[in-house]
Design brief:
heterotrimer; B: Four Helix Bundle (Hemerythrin (Met), subunit A); C: 228 residues; mainly alpha; 10 helices
Chain lengths: 64, 245, 228
């Protein structure tokens, strides 16, 4: 299998014979949606860990 | 029969620890597969004879549709496991799978309509597949919102597990009926690119993207379930030691 | 012997619910009145050009019948839930299948069947071609039964929630898709001169599946909700 690059230059890769708008907007939209799906639980978990730490530290300090 | 191995899978602590170990590896693998697949699909695959370059949307559209449907079955199976063996982890997997499935279905629908504009001249065509995906989105939304409208999280999870199972029984009937409806009301003949006759140079990037999307789904689901585990198990000892470490 | 007691369970719940609904006459007529009024609003909003209306009339009647049945079936367990008799029913050692089927049958007879029977008369108003009225009636009789059976699953799922009408529609409407498709195409098949018994057979097979699955699903939902 020998695959060749289909476009002559960068501008053509973006333009794609007039279909570039649709191809690239769907790529961008998809990456935005899927990236938010990745980042959302990571941020949620980090925030929760921080909050729990403060809570536990606070209760530990109080007990000593 | 020994069922101890089975109950190990049901332990949130075990799940949290094991996914923590495999997630970095899995995430990098997913990342590389998606980048390679996307570069090959967008740059190297030959343009379609009839549709030109717009066909490159297939590399996102088809994998996300695969995962939208597979995700629904996964959600229903997780719900059934939760109901039958009373495993709370299975309920959490089901609960987390709903919003993920909604996003994958949305991606499939949006890319489908962006593909439809240059191909059929309109952003939305009432064809059998698009309509079925739309109904799948509604099924997901139902499961999602039912689970969040109860005071106690437990009864919400049980209710949405039942709804997911009922939906699974319905999905084949819905697909058949929509297919049938499409042939009845067919106005314009719409020609789809037939998958079997795909050129290998077109097909291999698609295969890479499908595998990549499956892995991405696994990564996203694990991340969401890990966050959910921390929320639900925050009072337990193992989470406390984990936090203070 | 056992069979006889089970049969009595079905009949007794059917009778009980029918008596209850006929005692509160006005309340059990509400779905029907809603259906009549909303269908008759259609010519006012679409204009009375009979040709355009004739084309969409079957679809309108089917969708409005769906809405009326969905709204009424959504509260099928509410009264029993509020006065505690639902709990009584669940904790008995009997299988829940027949009592539930009895309740749903009673609901269908008192609230959904009147809608199906009224529909052909409304069809005359819209107007629909006269030879389409029999397929409409037959289709709706089976279709409203399917709507009731599926809507009761939604009702069982949302029993403890508040402000349930939209939630119920949200979770049940996607499941209604095949019924609407086959039901309305009974009439479109007839209009196109094809054999309308085919979509009717599809509709009936959906009904057969639902008659078995719906009571099973609902009893599963109720039983599992009792174990906390």
């Amino acid at each position: 299998m020998s695959m060749t690059f289909q476009f002559d230059n960068f501008a053509q890769l973006i333009f794609m014979d007039g279909h570039g708008v649709f191809v690239w907007s769907s790529v961008l939209l998809t990456s935005f949606l899927l990236l938010s799906l990745v980042l959302n639980p990571i941020l949620k978990r980090r925030k929760l860990l921080k909050k729990l730490k403060i809570e536990l530290m606070g209760s530990d300090n109080a007990s000593y | 029969m020994q069922w101890t191995w089975f109950h190990k899978f049901a332990s949130p602590k075990w799940f949290y620890q094991i996914t923590g170990k495999i997630l970095p590896f899995l995430a990098w693998l997913t990342f590389f597969l998606l980048v390679i697949g996307l570069v090959l699909g967008l740059g190297y695959a030959p343009a379609d004879a009839k549709q030109g370059n717009s066909f490159r949307i297939i590399y996102i559209h088809v994998p996300s549709n695969f995962l939208a449907l597979a995700g629904y079955f996964l959600m229903a199976i997780a719900g059934a496991i939760g109901l039958i063996w009373r495993i709370k982890l299975a309920f959490w997997v089901m609960k987390c799978a709903a919003p993920i499935g909604i996003v994958f279905t949305l991606v499939g629908l949006l890319t489908g309509s962006l593909w439809g504009k240059p191909t059929w001249g309109s952003f939305w065509v009432w064809d059998a597949r698009g309509t079925s995906m739309l109904i799948l989105l509604f099924l997901y939304v139902g499961v999602y919102s039912l689970g969040r409208s109860f005071h106690s999280a437990n009864s919400g999870e049980k209710a949405s597990a039942f709804l997911a199972i009922v939906g699974t029984v319905n999905i084949p009937i819905i697909y058949k009926s929509v297919d049938w409806w499409f042939t009845l009301h067919q106005r314009a003949t719409i020609k789809f690119t037939s998958a079997p006759s795909m050129h290998p140079d077109m097909f291999y990037p698609l295969l890479i993207m499908i595998v990549g999307f499956y892995l991405l789904y696994a990564v996203v689901l694990m991340l969401a379930v890990r966050a959910e585990i921390l929320v639900r198990e925050r009072k337990t000892n193992w989470v406390r030691t984990l936090v203070l470490k | 012997m056992i069979f006889a007691t089970k049969e009595n369970l079905f009949i007794s719940y059917l009778k009980r619910d029918l008596v209850v609904s006929f005692r509160g006459k006005s309340a059990s007529l509400n779905p029907l009145i809603f259906f009549v009024m909303i269908v008759l609003l259609m010519p006012l909003s679409l204009g009375s050009y009979s040709l355009a209306l004739q084309k969409v009339a079957p679809g309108i009647i089917w969708i409005m019948a769906l809405l009326s049945v969905l709204l009424s079936a959504g509260s099928i367990f509410d009264e029993d839930y509020n006065d505690g008799s639902l709990e009584q029913m669940i904790i008995t050692p009997n299988l829940l299948f027949l009592p539930l089927l009895g309740k749903m049958t009673a609901h269908w007879i008192s609230k959904s069947l009147p809608i199906a029977i009224t529909a052909p008369f409304l069809g005359l108003f819209l107007p629909m071609p006269e030879n389409a009225l029999i397929p409409l009636l037959v289709g709706l009789i089976i279709g409203t039964a399917c709507f009731t059976l599926l809507g009761s699953i939604g009702a069982a799922l949302t029993v403890p929630t508040k402000d349930k009408s939209f939630l119920l529609a949200l979770i049940i409407l996607p499941l209604y898709v095949p019924i609407i498709i086959f039901g309305s195409s009974v009439i479109y098949y007839m209009a196109d001169g094809m054999n309308w018994r085919y979509p009717l057979a599809a509709l009936s097979s959906i009904f057969c599946i639902l008659v078995v699955l719906s009571p099973l699903a609902i009893s599963g939902i109720f039983r599992s909700s009792m174990i906390e």
